[in-house]
Amino acid sequence: MRKVIFAALGVLFTALPALAVAAVGSPYVPSNLGFDVTFSTRYFPAESFGFAIVGVTGGKAFVDNKRLSAGYAWTKFASHTAATVYMNLNAPYGSTVEGHVGSPKACSGTKAGAEPTACQGYNYGYQAAEHSYRYALEKGVQSALWWLDIEEANSWSKDTAVNAATIQGAIDYLNTKGLRVGIYSMPRMWRTIAGSGFIPVQKIAGQDVLIPVWLPVGVKSQVGAINACVTGKSFITGSPIWIVQYEASSTAIDQNIAC
Q1: Does 24 reside within a domain?
Q2: Does residue 3 belong to any structural domain of this protein?
Q3: What pLDDT shows up at residue 76?
Q4: The pTM is what?
Q5: How many structural domains is the chain composed of?
Q6: Whose CA is closest to 168, among 104, 98, 102?
């Protein structure tokens, strides 16, 4: 998720050609314009729009977005639908590791300062999601859909098994709260971080549920984003594309099209 400061748009968006049908289970209306709001977003567009996605984290796991309340309040005022949220994730490295790799699984054979294991990665992801979920509730933010931001800009292990376990741990925690999880990433980044063979799973109320994807494909126009909804290839086998991000201006907040 790019972290950019928004300058007032002052642009009226033209009507977009409607996509055929809404994606099953998606809270977003097809062809609707949306914005994603990060911890560094300070200015918001004045016009109404279809949907918004607000960052709970401040760029990485266990770091809170101090502007969450402001961003969420704006989306409730300006958006046609309830806001959804995302959180950044990374493997267990740095100052946030201590105290966050010991549960819910019992990990054996680990040493202080050693490379994290898949078991520790799972615990870290699980606890990171719990931390963000509790922080969101504290700020009055609720969403039935949470996106996990998986990008190379954050710290990841060279061992894709550790990274995959971290991602799965975060999904599993959010599923315990009855929340659906989607993944924001790009095909190349996803393969590098999680491995080409990793297919995350989720269960809600005991039922297997597909994990949707949010695709940043580097397109520069609404038309290009709409085309990507139809022609784009999901980086997770069997997962539907629900959103395509595009960048109409290098100085503007990220824009998105619902597929």
Answers
A1: no
A2: no
A3: 79
A4: 0.89
A5: 1
A6: 104
